[in-house]
Amino acid sequence: xxxxxxxxxxxxxxxxxxxxxxxxxxxxxxxxxxxxxxxxxxxxxxxxxxxxxxxxxxxxxxxxxxxxxxxxxxxxxxxxxxxxxxxxxxxxxxxxxxxxxxxxxxxxxxxxxxxxxxxxxxxxxxxxxxxxxxxxxxxxxxxxxxxxxxxxxxxxxxxxxxxxxxxxxxxxxxxxxxxxxxxxxxxxxxxxxxxxxxxxxxxxxxxxxxxxxxxxxxxxxxxxxxxxxxxxxxxxxxxxxxxxxxxxxxxxxxxx
Length: 256
Fold this sequence. Notes:
Elements: E1 9-13, H1 21-31, E2 35-40, H2 42-56, E3 60-63, H3 69-82, E4 88-91, H4 110-131, E5 139-145, H5 157-177, E6 182-189, H6 195-198, H7 203-213, H8 222-233, E7 244-247
Parallel strand pairs: 1-2, 1-4, 2-3, 4-5, 5-6, 6-7
């Protein structure tokens, strides 16, 4: 592949470190010629993401906590200084309290449930509402999901419910933003050894077993997920919206 995103401006929210899926996506965007913008959440993340941004040759690294409307509004203003139009947005943001990923789902408290929904699902709606006006030429909004949205994955608990909500948001947003030529999709990645995966009890331990049952007999490579997002964000994906694309070595088709 070469130059699939040449001349396009892309925003990636959720880069945490070099092992995050969002980092792989950002790297693939740069490879394909996109002008890249990254975000960080608060001062704790600033230095790390700014260093990653330098490595990736990002044109800007901007602060944005997606739970704060004023920071989303400022993000839209700052993006205007980078480019008059925004072509691709990647939403790679999710969070749940650690205890809600280790205790039985039945024990999930109201506050923990609402927190997971706000950060992992509603934030996509808030991002789309705020940034869609900047996507004057159309474009693509892509989020990351997981099989736990439709199947019971041990210890995924409240995050599985949040991902189900996220996928519903994708469909409703796709329907409403379609007339403006903005496509909205999700990529359902197989389990990858990221900080988020380690937060789910026994997830990394179970990956070996998952690989033995997947049709391709292996786990998912972050680069495969990144290339799928490139496809959806490029003109090659111009007819795809409202979908969840599985990139999980085929595991989702198996009964057990």
